[in-house]
Structures are given as C-alpha cells and as structure tokens.
Amino acid sequence: MNASGTGPLTNSVRPRIREIDYVKAFCILAMVIEHCYGTFYASFCDYSIDVAEPAIFTILNLCNILIGPSAFMFCMGFTVSVGKEHHANACMTRGVSLFFMGLLLNYVRGTFARNVFFFSQDADLLCRQMIDVLGGDILLFAGLGFMLLGLLKKIKLNAWGIFIAAILLSAIGTLLRYTDTGEPVSNGILGLFVGANSESYFPLFNWFIFIAAGNLFSFYYVKIKDIKKFYAIALPVSAVLGAVYLILAYNCVGPFQTMGEEEAFSYWLNPCDSIGCLLCIFTFVGVMWLLTELTAKLHISRDPLLYIAKNLSVIYIMQDLLIFWFDIWMIQGLGLIQSACSPLVVCCCGMILLLASVGLTELYKKYWRTAVQGFLKKRAVLFAVCVTVIIAFCCTLAVTHGVKEIPNFTNGYDVEDMGYISYGSGAEE
After folding, report:
1. What are the residue ranges of helices labelled H in 180-270?
2. Is residue 401 exposed (0-12), middle (13-18) or buried (19+ Cβ within 10 Å)?
3. Looking at CB atoms within 10 Å, which of 23, 82, 129, 296 has the fewest?
4. What is the C-alpha separation between 210 and 158, in angstroms, rounded?
C-alpha cells in the first residue's frame, strides 16, 4: 500500500496524503502561535522572553524551526511532486504567482495598514517604515523556491540532483550570512536569497533544502508498499536521531546552532542544522501518520485538520493580516488594547484569530474566490506590474525620506526610532 493505504500512486490517480495534510495543518497552528507571541508578547514585554520564560522560548524555537517553516516548506516540495502541476513550467508559473502575492501581502499587512495614521503620526517615519515591503515573508520564499525548483527540473536534474544542489546552496548561504551592502534596498533584495542585513527570515539559499528534501522524499514515499512496516522501522530511528539533534542544537554543540541564543542562526540555517531538522520532520510525518490511523478508526466526518490543509494558502494570508492589523490598529495605533504579557492570554488570542481566519476563508470561498482567481488568470501580467510599481514606490519613499538601515533581528529593531516595523506602527515607547 502507499502512504494513503490504497496502493501505489500513479500519475493518473493522486489522492491526498493525509499525514502530509496533517503536518501542514499543524504548521499553520504553530505559525499562528509563534506570530502571536512575537507580536503580542515578546516584542512588548519589559523582559526578554528567553530569560523570563525559558520553557516558552524553547517551544517557540520548536514552532519556528521544526513544526513551522521547515516542515511547511518540506510539505511544499512533497505536494508539488505528487500534485497535478509538478512539471517545470507549472512550478515556475506557480512560483511567480506566489512571489507577487507575497509582495502584495507585505504591503497590505504593513504599509497599507499604517497609512491610516498618515496624518496623525510622523509622516517621515511612516515613509521610512515602508521599506518593510521587502521583508522576507514565507510566501516570497515559496515563490522563489518553486521558481528554482522549476528551473532545476528544466535542466533535467532528478530528485537527487536537486537535493545535492540544495545542499550546495545551503553551504553558500551559510558562508554569506550577515551580508551587508550598506544600502537598505539592495540589502532587502539580497535578503530574499541570503542572510543579509534586512528582514531576511527565509533566504532562498538556506531554506531551499527543505523543498528539495520534500521533493526527494515524495519520490520514494509514494512507492512504499507496506507503510506500516516502513514506519515500524523509520519512526523509531528518526525519533532517536532527531532527539539527539535537538539536544546538540539546544546546547550549541559544534555546527548545530539553530536553538542557541543567536537568533540569526535559526533563520540562516547551515547544512548540518538543516539535516537535523529533516530528521525531526521525518519523525513529525510519522507521528502524523499514527494520528491519521487513529482518526480513521474514529470515522470523523469533518476533519478540521484536513480542512486547514485544503485551505492552507488562504488561511495563512488571513491569519497574517489579522495579526498585523490587530496590532497596528488596536494596540500600537489607537492604543485601545494593551499588549498581553501572559502566555496563556496570547495563546487564546491566537486561537481566536485562527477561528476568525477560518471564517474569513469561508467568506472568500463563497463570495470572492471565483472573481479573484479569474482576474489573476486573465490579468496576471497586469497584476505583477501593479505590485512591482507599488513596491518600487514604497522603496523610493523610504529612501527619499532618509532610511539608512532596515530594522531586523540582527540590530535589535533599533534603527532611527523605527521600532519593530513589521508589527508596530511606530517607535516603541
């Protein structure tokens, strides 16, 4: 049997693989928790989260590395390989679409929201903050990742060739960490590819290895005839090796640095950390397979995890917008709500925002999806041009109003009183 328990997959029959869907669903849950803590808790408390709440810091690190972006990207590579649009041109087309959608999301969730206060706050400061349209969001990485995957498929590299190329890129990305051109716009653009002096959260060179690994894993996974026998061996082995990696990373032994105090290393992973994360992801997939076995026995008619997986992109965008807008308008801008310094309160906020995201997703599917998809399909070039103009305009305003450096995790978000501009509407008090 294959991963879904129905026999080997073929090109004509590609059912959903439930354990991968479950991984994607939990990734979204982890991202909501991490975003809420980063927005409503760690950024505004009077103490450092890693000092005051070491257990929470460890959980967030796991959300940030294991059950968040890395597993999410792994699933990208997996699903594109077993999906209908797995050919080179389809990968590249999808990548371009995601890239420009990511740029638009950067603008709408930050710059657009803050412009509500254009006449009541420092206009020069708001213009300088527009540089965050170049922030390295996961959608931008996904777009670049799919474009690169399509390009490598175009030159006829097989799954192993793509994975080896990804390891080389990871090594190059490690060597180029802390790149600084001395100019914010070029740093912002470079930060999409390598770890630069910008909001370079998911640089392509360091994170493409997860897409490549998912692509390689799916090549073999769909050919497994006895999935139970496979996991009887693979799950214990990956769990032990993954646990060893986490212990080494937590104690910063040798090249394993992801869970250390230097935040940059959790975003600009080296090849050794990436391989360690992959061991944890294999364990994650195995645990999710066990969960699918349990839910199958319970005969759940409406599985919320499958719902999240099937509506992943829209839910991700909705929760991102809600978290940013809630912070910019209600906390930073109008001051109507105080930032939470209780982990439990933050977690509850995250769950409420996730439910709101699901509600907005249903409204989108019912009233707007057909129109939006129709427009993007017929006016793709116009959409890309408009987004490019908006981003260029924002960058121009930022530069002409004196931005010298992009606030990011390497400089403590302390640049020209700009504060944590991705989440705040102005300088921190």
Report:
1. 184-190, 204-221, 227-250, 264-267
2. middle
3. 296
4. 16
Tokens of 87: 């050919």
Radius of gyration over every alpha carbon of the chain, rounded to an integer in angstroms: 21
The one-letter amino acid at 27? C
Q: What is the DSSP string of 309-367?
A: HHTHHHHHHHHHHHHHHIIIIIIIIS--SPPP--HHHHHHHHHHHHHHHHHHHHHIIII
CA distance 191 to 148: 16
Q: How far apart are CA 44 and CA 37, in angstroms?
A: 10
| Matching residue, tokens 């991963």 | 3
The tokens describing 147, both together, are 């474009």
Dist. CA 142–CA 145, nearest whole Å: 5
SS3 state at 122: coil
The distance of Cα 361 from the centroid of its chain, to the nearest Å, equals 19
Question: Which tokens hold the place of 167?
Answer: 């390891």
Give the pLDDT of the chain (429 residues) as one tens digit per residue: 344 443 444 443 445 788 999 999 888 888 887 777 777 765 444 434 444 455 565 666 666 666 778 899 999 899 887 666 678 888 999 999 999 999 999 999 888 888 877 666 778 888 888 998 998 888 999 999 999 999 999 999 999 999 999 999 999 999 999 999 999 999 999 999 999 999 998 999 999 999 999 999 998 998 898 999 999 999 999 999 999 998 998 888 889 988 777 778 888 999 999 999 999 999 999 999 999 988 888 877 788 888 888 888 899 899 888 888 877 776 665 555 555 566 677 777 778 888 999 999 999 998 898 888 888 888 889 999 999 999 999 999 999 998 999 888 888 777 766 655 543 433 333
Residue 5 tokens, joined: 């328990």
